[in-house]
Prior knowledge:
Blueprint: H1 24-36, H2 50-53, H3 58-61, H4 74-87, E1 91-95, H5 98-108, E2 116-119, H6 126-133, E3 137-140, H7 152-157, E4 163-167, H8 178-188, E5 191-195, E6 203-204, E7 207-208, E8 215-219, E9 232-236, H9 239-249, H10 252-255, H11 262-265, H12 277-288, H13 290-312, E10 316-318, E11 332-336, H14 338-341, H15 345-354, H16 371-374, H17 403-412, E12 413-416, H18 425-440, H19 442-445, E13 450-453, E14 456-459
Parallel strand pairs: 2-3, 2-4, 4-5, 5-8
Antiparallel strand pairs: 1-9, 6-7, 8-9, 10-11, 11-12, 13-14
This protein binds pyridoxal-5'-phosphate.
Residues 97-99, 123-124, 126-127, 169, 195, 197-198, 219, 221, 232 line the site of pyridoxal-5'-phosphate (PLP).
Amino acid sequence: MKLALLGGKPVRHKPFKSQPYVTEEMIKRVASLLREKRLTRFIGSPVEGSRRIIGLKSRESEDLRDAFSVLGGPSVRKLESEWSKKHEVDYSVAVNSATSGLTAAIMALNLGPGDELICSPFSFTASATAIVAANVIPVFADIDPETFCLSPESAEAAITDCTRAIMPIHWNSNAGQLEEILSLADQKGLKVVEDASQSPGMRYRGKHLGTHGDAGVFSLNEPKNIMTGEGGVIVTHDRDIAIKCRLIRNHGEAIVDEDAPDDLLINAIGYNFRLVELLAEIGVDQLQHLEYLNNIRKENYEYLVQRMVNEFGNCIKPQKITHPESYCPYAAGFRWLASDIVIHRNIVAKVLRSEGIPVADGISRLMSDNPLFQRQLAYGRDHCPFSCHLYKNRAIYFIRDLPNARKLQDEEYLGFFQMGWPNTPEDMDDIIQAFKKILDNKHHLSGKASIINNSGFVSGR
Ligand SMILES: Cc1ncc(COP(=O)(O)O)c(C=O)c1O
């Protein structure tokens, strides 16, 4: 069949649907909150009993009778309680995004100027910018080429006297070599913050993702496995970290009383990361459907991968997943092994799009390529924390070559976001069909330097 780019009929005419899952029950719940005029119920000032309340386990805080609280309103506390039950963790702290959640979690570890935190470069910008937002230096280590997640060996090589923490990023919901990262952190006395933005409801070695480290953070933004539009949840087993996250979320310095210990105030400096009641209520409803929604992702993904491997195994390889039994991906990641059949990945992506198949050819850019880090900018005219006198490595900070991440980004990565409801295996068939077309037309497409536009072949990217 003729490629759409060369005047043929595209494989797919209708867009893939990746919509929020909205139920009648959810509409009723939100309407009822609106009737109650319950938009938010946080109090950002000390009230009687705040010191006790702020340390309650999430399951206990649900039972508070106060209409307004330093822990937010009934819907926020219900979401946290349900989240904790689902993820088997004592503390869940709902926030207005995973970006805020990551920033709060890092600050809650009492990290700050002079400290380094190691992460991989292959993620959405917020994973690394949250580190700088917390006044900490991000140090980029390479990914494992198969899992697309942080390489334990590269992370170990990046440790310095300033390293205080590691952030495994569960890219496309994959835990990667989390066990090795945890054991490295344990040996070196480092804290672990999991970026589990894409991994709600998934287990790794029996325990939920997000709950393996000192703190974990989930995103509830619109395209995620469950979504409230914007939102996030921090989880931790550690009461002190939970208290600090709750203070950071809600004007901590205003909530604590006069004789609060200094430690409680460190890094709790006036942020407002609160989630509103309406979004929390949507989250409560969505959480009830998490298994259903995750199972749809699992079914679509397994179908797609099986057919891809069976039919095109010599030129495309799925991301290596380290917890396949519970894997329900946010997006399906693949490596295009261009060298085998000499069609560049960029050409594949362009042809797929013209065939009606949206695809990510890499991420928008490696986080380590961001000018913010390349030029070591950040706060103020003097570029703190990079230039801070407390930062002992300021003269030698550099961004390593990250060959695995570079290769994945520039040559191999293909990502499909169409895994979630209401897509079905039938929709996956269109992706397969488009690959078939590419391979049937490989004589038109081979030649690494060339790339196609709508009028034919042109050179370079
Ligand atoms: C891995 C990862 N980390 C962090 C974020 C930031 O999440 P949010 O949009 O909730 O701030 C995202 C969102 O796309 C993400 O995918």
